[in-house]
């Protein structure tokens, strides 16, 4: 006997099975996209303390030592960490990747995020659980067990390294790797979930520090490149993929030059230098000594790079995630103060 209401209906016998299959397909986790090869991708290496907030763990390390720290991590490995300073930036990178995959399904020119941490492997379970909890697409982990990350950064063809450890960042810069020490803002400021916004200082960030040493320079003489020039170049490469599809105005990447220099004395040389490199920023702001914090609050970038802690602190106070680039003549006179860092928590 056939179930009521199905007698004589074409294909009725298979309908309950089709509905059940559809139901269980919806319960099955969606397959994540394949990670690009490191040599094709724009690799962003992020430390665990940059991606997540780990103040409590750091306090335990400082006061009770490494064994108590590891035990605490294991005891709490099913509790996800809270988002850290780099978290909105990473989410914005993933949003750009989503759009790139829609436009170029077979391309590997994407952001590839690597978690670079000094943690021992046994502590990694909590990090993995946290990444899965927030549905982040981070497939590559490097848990060095206390060893220096520099060699691994080179092996991954790293385009940018973000860490909360100023010493490791300085080491990366000295090895020619674009890097910055990232700081959490003093207050939360909502940022775009659809457009990646990156703001750069000029001197000793995009450009060399020569204009810090020689104030008056010839505008037709291009500046030498700074440590983050390559990262701006990588962003520009992805922007052009959207431009070629007629999406310049809808591009999910926007870049800013935010400098304390004046347009009259330094503006032409900075812009001509970018032009000589085949690069540009979407906006250029020459503040002539005015504070950067209020302008950054208006821009709401996911990250702002500067070589002077004075400007980093000003940005933080206004709610901007800021990153210090320890490069150039200014670092010879003053290095940022840093707290004792737990060996296994970067």
From TrEMBL:
GO terms for cellular component: cytoplasm. It holds the Pfam family 5-nucleotidase. One of its GO terms (biological process) is nucleotide metabolic process. One of its GO terms (molecular function) is magnesium ion binding. Residues 1-39 are annotated as: Disordered. InterPro entries: 5-nucleotidase. Residues 1-15 have a biased composition (Low complexity). This is 5'-nucleotidase, cytosolic IA. The lineage of its organism: Eukaryota, Metazoa, Chordata, Craniata, Vertebrata.
